[in-house]
Amino acid sequence: MNSPRLVRLVGIGIVLLLVVAAGGYSLYRARVASSRDKVDANAIRQVVGEFGARLRNIPTYPLHDLEDLAAKEGIGVRTINGIKVFHTKDGRDLEMSTTSDGSDCVVDHGEVMLLKSALQWQLNLPITGEIASSAED
């Protein structure tokens, strides 16, 4: 083989190798960066809370609207023997407490959540509020 032919053959070999490498990378990238499904979007919404709700244009309801919706479902705050409880759709009465700023919160298995968040949870709406950091008995 003379030298120009050898250079051309090596050049074609390098180009073919680059084309195969680029094709393999594009197939790998498409497999790794698959589209998100609905479950992933819901998990992201739960993690980022209100900020995520604003990004995804999820409607936020004022507390009084949530209370009206909950009353139609039989959910909400009740007083039993002088004690405020939160009645859930599955019939449980959860303990209620007050946060340091005076707002009502619901205690479920040691987890403290604001009343608005508890209503959204029971109405199967995206939770857009923040979890209460502390509760006073």
What does this structure look like?
By secondary structure, this protein is an alpha+beta fold. It has a domain at 60-122. Helix content is 49%, strand content 18%. Strands 1-2-3-4-5 form a 5-stranded antiparallel sheet. Strand 2 (83-87) and strand 3 form a beta hairpin. Helix 3 (63-73) packs across helix 4. The longest helix has 30 residues, at 3-32. It starts with a helix and ends in a 15-residue tail after the last helix.
Brief overview, please?
The chain is of the alpha+beta class. 49% of the residues lie in helices and 18% in strands. It has helices at residues 3-32, 38-55, 63-73, 115-122, and strands at 76-80, 83-87, 93-98, 104-108, 111-114.
Q: What share of residues are in beta strands?
A: 15-25%
Q: Termini separation (Å)?
A: 92 Å
**Sequence of secondary-structure elements:** HHHEEEEEH
How many H/I helices? 4
Describe the biggest sheet? 5 strands, antiparallel
Rounded radius of gyration (Å): 29 Å
Largest sheet strand order: 1-2-3-4-5
What's the rounded overall pLDDT mean?
Answer: 77
Question: Helicity range of the residues?
Answer: 40-55%
- Which stretches are low in confidence, meaning pLDDT under 50 for 5 or more residues running? 132-137
For the secondary structure, the number of strands is 5
Question: Structural class of the secondary elements?
Answer: alpha+beta
Shape: rod-shaped
